[in-house]
Amino acid sequence: MQYKTIVLAFLQQRPEIHEQLRKNRMLLPVLEFYARELKTIHEAWKETLSQAKPGSDHSQIASEAMEIAVKELEDRLPSASPQDGTKPLSLDAAMAFINNIHTLPD
């Protein structure tokens, strides 16, 4: 599973954040952090769904688990545009996101 590819796509959908991460040389660490998060969420959902649906096809379980995991991760990431849609993400908001990444555990 290409977790990093999925996370990179999410970050590229947020150009302001992507650019700030790139400029601050934080894109790879953030990408790796969220890829690990996605993998952890995916594996947890596979286990949960396997127990809830014994005898189900493993590839179907994995696919369903990935859909749920991707949605959960997407909800955790800052939005690509503000809630009201009237103005782009501010530099302050992008920097706050980057600063929060600095405090994430390895």
Explain how this protein is built.
Helix content is 72%, strand content 0%. It is an all-alpha fold. The chain is elongated and about 50 Å long.
Keywords:
mainly alpha; 72% helix; elongated; 106 residues; 5 helices
User: Runs with pLDDT <50, length 5+?
Assistant: 82-86
Strand content: under 5%
Helix content: over 70%
Count of individual helical segments: 5
Biggest sheet architecture: none
Task: Compute the separation of the termini in Å.
Answer: 21 Å
Quote the average pLDDT. 81
- Radius of gyration over all CA atoms, rounded: 16 Å
**3D shape:** elongated
What is the ordering of alpha helices and beta strands? HHHHH
Helix/strand/pairing class, anyone? mainly alpha
Number of strands: 0
Question: Secondary structure elements and their pairing?
Answer:
Elements lengths: L2 H10 L2 H9 L3 H26 L5 H19 L14 H12 L4
In short:
Helix content is 72%, strand content 0%.
